[in-house]
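Page 42, continued from yesterday. The earlier attempt failed because a stray header line got pasted into the input along with the sequence. Redoing it now with the clean sequence only.
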Amino acid sequence: MNAENAMPILKAVLAKRDACSAELREKAVFLVSQKRTSETEDLLLGVVRDDPNPEVKKKAVFWMGQVNTDRAAQALVQMLESSTTSSELREQAIFAIMQQHSERGQAAVRRIAEDAKSPNELREKAVFWLGQQRSPENAQYLRGLFDRLANAPEGSNGESIRQKILFSLSQMRGEGNDQWLMQVAANPKHSVETRKQAIFSAGQAGVSTADLIALYPRLNERELKEQLIWVLSEKRDPAAFSRLMEIAKSDPDRELRKKAIFWLGQSNDPRVKDFLLEIINGPR
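This time it went through. C-alpha cells are written below.
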C-alpha cells in the first residue's frame, strides 16, 4: 500500500494494548519507519512513550535510527540524554544514533562515554559503538578519553571504561591504534590489568609478531608475560612458535617456561613434537 492508505491501518494496530498484539505492533513499527510521512516520527515516538511492551519500544527506537531526518536524530539524542529514559532504551538509542552517521549524534554518544554520572553499562556501549565506526576522529577521541581517565583508581568505573576503550580501538584497524596499544602495554604507569588488556587488544588489532616478540623483554611482571605468551600462541606463525620454544627452553622463570610449553602443546607446528620430546628426554 502507499503511505496514505497504509497509515490508518498501522495506527490502528499500534493503538492496541493487549499482550497478544505485541508482535503485530512490532511489525507495524517497522512498516511505519518505511512510510516516510509527516507522521512517521510522531508515531514512533508515541510507541516509545506509550506502548506497554518493552520489546516493542526497543523496536521503535531501533527503526527510528533508520529514519534519517533531523527530527528523528534530535528525538534520539534527547532520549539518550534523558535520565528518566530506561537504560535499555538509552542503550538502544546509542545503536540507533550511530546508524545515522551524523556528527551531532556521534557528539551526543561521546558525551555519554565521558559522563561519570551515566550508568557504567551505558558508557561502555557508547565506547563500543564509537569503535565500530572507523574514523580518525573517533580513534583520536577514544585515545584522548583513555588518557583523561588515567587517574581513575584501579577497580573503579573509570578503569573499566579504559579497558573497554582498549578493546574498542582494537576493532578499529588502522588509524595508528596498533602501535598506540603497544605503548600502553609497555607503560608501567598503567595497572597490570589495563596492560594485560592492551596486550590482548594489540594482538586483536593485528600487531606484527616481530613487535610482540620485541615487547617480551620489556615486561617485568609475570602476569604480563603470561598474557603475551598466550597472544603469541594465537598468532599461529612460525616466528611466534620459535619464540615460545626459546621461552620454554631458557626463560629463567620456571612458571613462564611451563606456560610456554602448555601453549606449544596446543599448536600444530611440526617442530613442536620433536621439541617437546627433547625436553622430556633431556637433563633435568
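Notes: DSSP finds 17 helices and no strands in the chain.
Reminder to self: strip header lines before submitting.
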